[in-house]
Design brief:
Belongs to the isocitrate and isopropylmalate dehydrogenases family. It is built from eleven helices and twelve strands. With 351 residues, the chain is an alpha/beta fold. It has two domains: 192 residues, Isopropylmalate Dehydrogenase (3-Layer(aba) Sandwich), CATH 3.40.718; 136 residues, Isopropylmalate Dehydrogenase. The strands form two sheets. A ten-stranded mixed sheet has the order 2-1-3-12-11-4-5-10-8-9, with helices on both faces. A two-stranded antiparallel ribbon has the order 6-7. α1 packs across α10 and α9 runs antiparallel to α10. The site of manganese (II) ion has 2 residues, from α8.
């Protein structure tokens, strides 16, 4: 029997609930499909930080390297640990160290989910650059606390980093409906974003079958609301992609539905799967987090592992569940009720 080694990092807040939900569904799908997921849970989180002074041990990255994939919940508990410490101590270093440069975030409405827009038939795949750009962590502050204080945050865009993500976007567009929206702010940012536009243009010559359009991020944000069905694949820098994908989550009914995959396309290190949302301190501990985003992210993990049939079975079970109305109204059904319904749908499919 095939066995996949999965590192589970539930993290903080609702990350714990939704990861447990995803794990219950995924292990069920695995046994039905005849393979095994061997999980090992790591307690790395803000709680771990408070106990040890570290978000993960010194050799955390090396420990994770031995796994086939990582399933993560959410990181961050800002009331006790500053986000700049927790995220730069756990989530962001994993994305970077494992060269998970393509963050794939789908936006479409699941059956039975009422989005806030009139449009229903959209199907967007956002590809977010995940290792550099505005998240480079380069910068500093001088004259801290003084009237003349200056803070600098430098975005770093490399040719290698920009080329590979835009190429990834073209490949995804080629495999879908052949349309790529490349996102910049090159009217205001005259170095990095002009660089990005030039690379998009140069690569377009290699993909004559893909219709590529460059948009400014502000205009693209409006388009996602006004005409989402006109979009197919979006490729954006780290920060723009972050913001656009919370917007993408909103148009598909909320953060509780939005999945994401941090992919290392070369497979030189494990990829990581996590919902788009965070630890949701406002609802944590109440058992009402929507686990759909985490379960969908888990389906993306199965797909990445080469278990396409099991991935499709999980997606079908999710859709059959939302089609009945379960999990579609925020706060109405508990995490456990939604998870049990997905597992029931999965079991019914087997029979
Ligand atoms: P958030 O995504 O945690 O929450 C935003 C809003 O969406 C909240 O009202 C929350 O209740 C709601 N929400 C989110 N997920 C939901 C779900 N599954 N079901 C129902 N409602 C849901 O964003 P935030 O409040 O800005 O961040 C909270 C913490 O999480 C911060 O520390 C932040 O840095 C961190 N964060 C982590 C990740 C990650 O680990 N990938 C992602 C985003 C935010
Ligand atoms: C996400 C999150 C993270 C990001 C934060 C928590 C650093 O918002 O995964 O979308 O900006 O990448
Ligand atoms: Mn985000």
């Amino acid at each position: 029997m095939k066995v996949y080694k999965i590192a589970q990092i539930p993290g903080d807040g609702i990350g714990r609930d939704v990861t447990a939900a995803a794990w219950a569904v995924l292990t069920k799908a695995a046994s039905a499909a005849g393979f095994r997921l061997e999980g090992r849970e790591f307690p790395w989180s803000c709680k771990f930080y408070k106990e040890t002074g570290m978000m993960m041990p010194e050799d955390g990255i090396e420990t994770l390297r031995g796994f086939d994939a990582i399933l993560l919940g959410a990181v961050g508990w800002p009331a006790e640990v500053p986000d700049s410490v927790s995220l730069h101590g756990l989530l962001l270093p994993i994305r970077k160290a494992f060269v998970q440069y393509a963050n794939i975030r789908p936006h479409r409405l699941l059956p039975g989910v009422l989005g806030p827009l009139k449009a229903e038939g959209f199907d967007i795949l956002c590809i977010r650059e995940n290792t550099e750009g505005e998240y480079s962590g380069a910068g500093g502050r001088v004259h801290q606390g003084m009237d003349n204080e200056v803070a600098v945050e430098t975005s770093i865009f490399t040719r290698e980093g920009v080329e590979r993500i835009i190429r990834f976007g073209f490949e995804q567009a080629r495999a879908r409906r052949g349309k790529l929206a490349s996102v910049t702010k090159s009217n205001a940012q005259k170095y990095s974003m002009v660089f990005w536009d030039e690379i998009t243009k140069a690569l377009a010559a290699e993909y004559p079958d893909v219709e590529v359009t460059s948009y400014h991020v502000d205009a693209l944000a409006a388009r996602m609301v006004m005409a989402p069905e006109s979009l197919d694949v979006i490729v954006a820098s780290n920060l723009f992609g972050d913001i656009l994908t919370d917007l993408g989550a909103a148009i598909q009914g909320g953060l509780g539905f939005a999945a994401s995959a941090n992919i290392n396309p070369d497979r030189s290190a494990p990829s990581m799967f996590e919902p788009v949302h965070g630890s949701a301190p406002d609802i944590a501990g109440r058992g009402i987090a929507n686990p759909m985003a985490a379960i969908r992210s888990g389906a993306m993990m199965l797909e990445h592992l080469g278990e396409a049939e099991a991935a499709a079975a999980v997606m079908t079970a999710i859709e059959r569940t939302t089609a009945t109305g379960i999990g579609t109204v925020p706060g109405k059904d508990s995490t456990d009720v939604i998870t049990a319904a997905v597992i029931k749908a999965l079991t019914a499919q087997e029979g």
